[in-house]
Design goal:
Elements (H helix, E strand, L loop, with lengths): L8 E6 L7 H10 L5 E6 L22 H10 L19
Parallel strand pairs: 1-2
């Protein structure tokens, strides 16, 4: 758990993770002491940050899952954490 973490935190989860880690990442986010934190979920991204090929939508729907994950992690800092408008629909808080 992250009860003692007080530095900026970006908690990221992948929606198509076979391990269903979204809840675990969210719990860590909620318990983190940090006042500067964001919680994001990338729709259609698997545990390996690749597009889901076994989801309800065709794999082409998630073709940009790796790029979205990479963009969000490169922007890493939660202070002024902004996604380009084209990716804003992927941000979840």
């Amino acid at each position: 758990m992250l009860q003692h973490v007080s530095v900026p935190l970006l908690a990221a989860a992948n929606q198509a993770s076979f391990q269903n880690l979204i809840q675990e990442v969210e719990i860590n986010y909620l318990y983190a002491k940090s006042a500067d934190k964001d919680f994001i979920v990338v729709e259609g991204a698997t545990t390996g940050v690749t597009p889901c090929t076994n989801c309800a939508n065709p794999a082409t729907s998630y073709a940009n899952a790796t790029k979205i994950s990479s963009t969000m992690l490169q922007n890493g800092s939660t202070t002024g954490f902004h996604l380009p408008d084209s990716l804003n629909r992927w941000r979840r808080i």
